[in-house]
Amino acid sequence: LLLVAPLGAGSYGGVYSALDLRTGKQYAVKHVDTTRLTPQQTTMQRQEPTLHSKCLGHTGVLPLHSALDVEDGWCLVLGHAESGDLFDAVTGGSLWRDCRSQVEMEARSRIIFAQVCEAVAHCHSSGVYHRDLKPENILLTWAPPDEEEEEKMDMKKIWLSDFGLATECPLAAERGCGSAYYMAPESNLSTLPPRYPYISSAADVWSLGVLLANLASRRNPWQRAVASDPMYARFLRHRSAALARSLHVSKGLASILARVFSEDPRKRPSILELRDLVLNVSCFS
User: Fold this and answer.
1) 86-280 falls under which CATH superfamily?
2) What residues does ATP bind to (predicted)?
3) Is the pLDDT of residue 233 over 80?
């Protein structure tokens, strides 16, 4: 493999586009630099190839071709996503580039969200909980159009990526896994006593709710789901009405989000129930 260009960088290493000189096929190579990690982080990150492999076999999971040890860590050889990630597609608007109306934009968002839900549900059924769901970890790649939709040549499908914080524990005790915007309140460092477990699947459902808000409004509902955050505190007082006003979404969608953002993880919908609610809500805004 020839490393061609950097695709992105993070606290644990970088991702590069790569070319197989024998076949001409493109790949992405993720390099995890252990010199940047604590022993605890290294142990967690070492699980990534194993947990990622458990989730393969679903079209919504990023292909993992091989894992290689190198001098300063290891590399994962992954599928190459031609269209980048969902964060750039949402913030830059390219996700809806060919849409001719608000109805078409919402339909595109529903399709993408349903694909993400199905990929995460597959991971859960495989005994893996992602714990870092966010637009940057949802990759977009080209999908062939349906025969009856041949004029739509940029129908996108998703690949769920980055299993570096994933776990096989249905009840997890590690705090602070993921990005603050997408983290459930029970996953935050300050909300529960140390070692008090939380439900891993329900924490993923919460993150999907924030992702849904991104797709519907291009906004985050709050910076962190803690009482000291003004927007989250307003939500705790006014529930769906606060979401409808702050995100400029319909009452129907705000009601769905309010269920997802239940403080009691046991009251949140299942992932596939959430998918169906979103597919059937009359409108987003």
Assistant:
1) Transferase(Phosphotransferase) domain 1 (1.10.510.10)
2) 30
3) yes
